Amino acid sequence: IVDRVALGEWPYLRPSVNPQAHSEELGHLMQRCWAEEPSDRPEFSHISVLLRKQN
Protein backbone atom coordinates (compact mmCIF):
# COMPACT_ATOMS: atom_id res chain seq x y z
CA ILE A 1 0.00 0.00 0.00
CA VAL A 2 2.77 2.43 0.93
CA ASP A 3 4.55 1.83 -2.38
CA ARG A 4 1.39 2.43 -4.39
CA VAL A 5 0.62 5.65 -2.53
CA ALA A 6 4.22 6.80 -3.05
CA LEU A 7 3.69 6.29 -6.79
CA GLY A 8 0.65 8.53 -6.67
CA GLU A 9 -1.84 5.68 -6.87
CA TRP A 10 -4.79 5.34 -4.54
CA PRO A 11 -5.16 1.67 -3.56
CA TYR A 12 -8.61 0.14 -3.68
CA LEU A 13 -9.32 -0.77 -0.05
CA ARG A 14 -12.72 -2.39 -0.21
CA PRO A 15 -13.31 -5.87 1.19
CA SER A 16 -14.49 -8.71 -0.96
CA VAL A 17 -17.66 -10.42 0.23
CA ASN A 18 -19.14 -13.76 -0.73
CA PRO A 19 -22.46 -12.90 -2.45
CA GLN A 20 -23.99 -16.11 -1.12
CA ALA A 21 -23.36 -15.02 2.49
CA HIS A 22 -26.06 -12.33 2.49
CA SER A 23 -29.16 -11.10 0.68
CA GLU A 24 -28.85 -9.19 -2.56
CA GLU A 25 -30.30 -6.11 -0.86
CA LEU A 26 -27.69 -6.22 1.91
CA GLY A 27 -24.90 -6.69 -0.63
CA HIS A 28 -26.08 -3.64 -2.55
CA LEU A 29 -26.21 -1.63 0.69
CA MET A 30 -22.63 -2.62 1.56
CA GLN A 31 -21.40 -1.57 -1.87
CA ARG A 32 -23.13 1.80 -1.55
CA CYS A 33 -21.60 2.32 1.92
CA TRP A 34 -18.14 1.72 0.43
CA ALA A 35 -18.62 4.23 -2.41
CA GLU A 36 -15.57 6.39 -3.05
CA GLU A 37 -17.70 9.51 -3.33
CA PRO A 38 -19.30 10.37 0.04
CA SER A 39 -22.39 11.78 -1.65
CA ASP A 40 -23.02 8.32 -3.18
CA ARG A 41 -23.19 6.71 0.28
CA PRO A 42 -26.58 6.18 1.92
CA GLU A 43 -27.77 8.22 4.88
CA PHE A 44 -27.58 6.41 8.21
CA SER A 45 -31.36 6.57 8.58
CA HIS A 46 -31.67 4.59 5.32
CA ILE A 47 -29.07 2.07 6.51
CA SER A 48 -30.98 1.63 9.78
CA VAL A 49 -34.28 0.97 7.97
CA LEU A 50 -32.71 -1.63 5.68
CA LEU A 51 -30.92 -3.40 8.53
CA ARG A 52 -34.14 -3.59 10.55
CA LYS A 53 -35.85 -5.21 7.56
CA GLN A 54 -33.11 -7.88 7.50
CA ASN A 55 -33.90 -9.05 11.04
Automatic annotation (TrEMBL):
Origin superkingdom: Eukaryota
Question: Where are the annotated coiled coils located?
Answer: none
Domain called Serine-threonine/tyrosine-protein kinase catalytic: residue spans: 18-48
InterPro entries for the chain: Kinase-like_dom_sf (IPR011009), Ser-Thr/Tyr_kinase_cat_dom (IPR001245)
The record, for Pfam families, names: PK_Tyr_Ser-Thr
Q: What is this protein called?
A: Serine-threonine/tyrosine-protein kinase catalytic domain-containing protein
